[in-house]
Amino acid sequence: MNFHILFALFLTLTLHCVSALSINDVLETFQQIGAHITSLDKSVKDYEPGLEDKLQIERQHVTVELGLIQATKNIYATEPFDDKDSKTVTNAATQMQPAFETYLHDVVDKRPGFREANLADRIRKHIQEFHDRCHALSYELRNKVVLDDRKVIEDSAKEIDQEFNRALQAYS
């Protein structure tokens, strides 16, 4: 009987330690997403139809999406932020917005080349996935930041939604 109690206690403590992420984990993930979306945008701008470019762009889309998934998981696994950490996380999250907006603008500009290379449907799918993943991330952030920062996150999400919708419309 004591073994079962000790095992349950050990399991509970282990799960708590694994799920308690620091603000640095969250910030590092945001930095990685920012770097990945910037790299993807550069590839989009430099895109010339060809197999190698197709594969590189596909890989970079997946990398950004995985980063968004990881960021959402990291936010979910953290405790609610105090005022200072809330401001820091909110600032880091909103700093990704211009990179996504630039990517969305550039991917719309490159639409004719992507259509020619039969990549338009894949690009549209990635844009939709980014949109969905950003919504999930925004939702988790709003649940962890303080009230004032929640409004900042909501406003940022509304602004980026317009850009996502414009890009999705262009690829429809």
TrEMBL record:
Pfam families: HsbA (PF12296). It comes from the Eukaryota. Keywords: Signal. Residues 1-20 form the signal peptide. InterPro entries: Cell_wall_mannoprotein_1 (IPR021054). GO terms for cellular component: extracellular region. This is Hydrophobic surface binding protein A-domain-containing protein. It comes from Aspergillus coremiiformis.
